[in-house]
């Protein structure tokens, strides 16, 4: 089979490497891919949002199956464009991708179908939003741009002034473009967060190993929000009791709700959950694999990823095995100094072999460029270094040992990944 993976980060590298394990796979193309991915797939210089370019390439190249993972092409409708060319796909179509593409859609869905989430109101006028926040008088107040905003559209205001500033940034300055035409103002929730990625074929939903992301740039959850600085899996806060409650109150009702709305979800449905004192609630839905969650979750998958994805396409997910190892995984992200703000690129990376790998870890490339047998930094997040172990501590020790052997000028990584991963 000829497979196309759309995207070019650490998540796509993890997916490519897992798909390669299937002996039916002849060639994997990755668009646009990156330096490290080029050791595992044929990289094609088509940018992810280029729907028509991608569909045309897939048809000309005779692609048998396309996996679309980044949020923007999914929300724009790349799956629809590929399907229109007769290409089988993994990922939601445009209608189903609204579950991530519009927070108003997601919140209204949860309210209509009784799925637990933070209380909220929707506003298209900043003055009315501020009046509401003032009348509530409860801080912090959570303000979210309706549409995609590169992961930066959630602002947590500690005071009326901060709320006014946030509304101004989103709705008047349009810092996130049309994504800020409407906002959701919601209740601030507390509790540990869990990233739960699930395979879903529109009817059947199968959760993967629960993961714990680390969004802030610095140790102790300080500093700015990033795309994610590391992940451990399984997330020990997600006890069997919590899992059962989530399956009945959140996972199954979400699948049924999407069906009832006429847009059944197929692909990877990602639940951002908060385990609050009142029980688990949905913080957000994503219509795709998480990055870097995937870099810790997929190495634990023992079943064949391609067979699962093909079963999702054929709506027979209930008929394939989806088994995970009982081991533990840790992924530590190595970033360019300064990320998520200004950073330099083009720094040579030391400690990798000619394939961009190491014998003691799996190295997922997020932002690298390759020149012959050498690799150079080419993005904010550069590498995800993943190791497994028989315990959380062992997985982390293995990952940090490998991280210590890799270097580039200005490299930054958190030293406390997984430190909060405890059973309640
Ligand atoms: P997002 O960019 O949508 O992933 O959200 C960023 C982060 O904001 C989440 O991971 C949460 O930590 C936080 N957050 C979002 N909504 C709420 C809420 N209602 N209460 C507390 N924290 C929240
Ligand atoms: N790591 C969170 C996300 O992929 O949105």
Automatic annotation (TrEMBL):
Domain ATP-grasp positions: 107-314
Record field: catalytic activity: 5-phospho-beta-D-ribosylamine + glycine + ATP = N(1)-(5-phospho-beta-D-ribosyl)glycinamide + ADP + phosphate + H(+)
Keywords from the named record: ATP-binding, Ligase, Manganese, Metal-binding, Nucleotide-binding, Purine biosynthesis
Pathway the protein takes part in: Purine metabolism; IMP biosynthesis via de novo pathway; N(1)-(5-phospho-D-ribosyl)glycinamide from 5-phospho-alpha-D-ribose 1-diphosphate: step 2/2
UniProt-listed Enzyme Commission number(s): 6.3.4.13
Highest taxon of source: Bacteria
Keyword check for Disulfide bond: no
Entry's Gene Ontology BP terms: 'de novo' IMP biosynthetic process; purine nucleobase biosynthetic process
Cofactors required: Mn(2+); Mg(2+)
GO function term, MF aspect, one: metal ion binding
Family per similarity comment: Belongs to the GARS family.
Protein name: Phosphoribosylamine--glycine ligase
Protein's gene: purD
